[in-house]
Amino acid sequence: MIPVDGRGVRVALNVAPQRIVSLVPSTTETLFDLGLGDRVVGVTRYCVHPARVRALPRVGGTKDVRPDRVRALAPDLIVGNCEENTREIFDALADVAPLWAPLPRTVDDALADLLTLGALCGVPDAAAAWHTRILAARAALRASGRPPTRVAWLIWRRPWMTINRDTFIDAMLREANGVNVFADHPDRFPVITAAQIAAHAPDLVLLSSEPYPFQGRHVDELAKSTGLPHDRIRGADGELASWHGTRMALAFDRWTREDWPALS
Fold first, then answer.
1. pTM of the prediction?
2. Is 17 left (phi over 0), alpha (psi -120 to 50) or beta?
3. Last residue in a domain, options 69, 103, 137
4. How far apart are CA 217 and CA 69, in angstroms?
5. Which of 24, 177, 184, 217 could bridge across to 146 with cysteines, CB 3.0–4.6 Å?
6. Are residues 221 and 160 in the same domain?
7. Within-domain flag for 75
């Protein structure tokens, strides 16, 4: 079967790609974990894992990819993401190379995409091995007996922004028995106020390390504006909650062994 990505585009390759450009940090890490590092010829400036990517050519950011730089690398596969990248970027790269752009909103979506990426790149066995590893880590987390924790997961400041249930982050939090207090908001990435955060009375407000680079001073700021105690507002590792792909195994392992405060 020819796989269909998040745009509804069917992507078929006659041979396994040998020159891959990744427009997504989590996918870059996954490609290396699948043993494809030597085939990755270009990445974004936000691609930081593994350390080897620092030597690779940069094609811009996830929202401001330079099509000329991608074209110059002569890829035979471009891997993007419908949430990380824009339609304008995809349109500009349409005649450069086949482009796979998924949109995983659940853990199962992300697991399916991992297998598809492995098949597209000619490494189905490596993808299947990681798939098995992630499922085992997920099962261990579910069996660990974590108590439910009502959380407000913040991704931006000025204005404050969070996530609703129709997001991959929410799906990951639910795996760790996190209950998103803004899950029912009609917007996927709601703009909220400090007063709304206080009114929802979360057990924890978790300040994600990405996309906004929250720091310690923001804990003081939010405590003052919400009236919530400082010990209920903490930094959180955004990569663990928002990176689909092989990073899910690390997330589930960490959350099985550690409490929410250990995410900071």
1. 0.95
2. beta
3. 103
4. 38
5. 177
6. yes
7. yes
- Residue 130 sits at the vertex; the CA angle it makes with 20 and 236, to the nearest 5 degrees, is 90
Confirm whether 142 is domain-assigned: no
Task: Compute mean pLDDT per 10 residues along the chain, 264 residues long, and list them.
Answer: 94 96 98 98 97 97 98 98 97 97 98 98 98 98 94 97 98 97 98 98 96 93 96 93 97 89 47
Structure tokens at 30: 């996954």
Domain ends where: 67, 85, 103?
Answer: 103
In angstroms, rounded to a whole number, what is the distance separating the alpha carbons of residues 6 and 55? 30
Rounded to 5°, the CA angle 49-30-105 comes to 110
Give whole-number Cα distances, 215 to 150, 208, 210, 221, 260, in Å.
Answer: 22, 10, 11, 10, 17
Q: Is residue 68 part of a domain?
A: yes
Structural domain including 92 reads 1-103
